Inverse folding.
């Protein structure tokens, strides 16, 4: 898979922990910024095992959001987003069937860079 290791680890840690998954405001509430930055620094210096010590879901989600914010290019490029919006508008205007919607969306997503597409799918699983 072409999902970055740190992002894959964070997603896996959250998804496999029932307490994390039932945390109110998951991915919406912010974790402690100082803790997130400290953890980021440690990971950048090769100490990815520090992720295993995190006991707060908001720290992990904050780290994932920080990772996504700092990408050189957005996970979903503006051109891809525009194509998705146009496809959905076209379908709404023509009363398209759900199957046709999914085919159009799938075709657009398949044009994304593989690592971006894999990361998006990992986040949405």
């Amino acid at each position: 898979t072409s999902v970055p290791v740190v992002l894959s680890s964070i997603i896996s840690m959250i998804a496999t922990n029932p307490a994390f998954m039932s945390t109110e405001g998951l991915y919406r509430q912010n974790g402690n910024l100082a803790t997130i930055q400290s953890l980021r620094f440690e990971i950048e210096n090769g100490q990815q095992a520090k992720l295993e010590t995190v006991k707060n879901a908001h720290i992990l989600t904050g780290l994932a959001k920080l990772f996504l914010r700092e990408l050189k290019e957005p996970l979903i490029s503006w051109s891809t987003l525009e194509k998705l919006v146009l496809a959905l508008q076209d379908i709404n205007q023509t009363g398209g069937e759900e199957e046709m919607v999914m085919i159009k969306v799938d075709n657009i997503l398949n044009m994304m860079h593989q690592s971006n597409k894999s990361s998006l799918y990992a986040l949405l699983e």
In short: The radius of gyration is 17 Å. The chain is about 65% helix and 0% strand. Helices lie at 5-15, 18-21, 33-44, 57-69, 78-94, 98-110, 114-124.
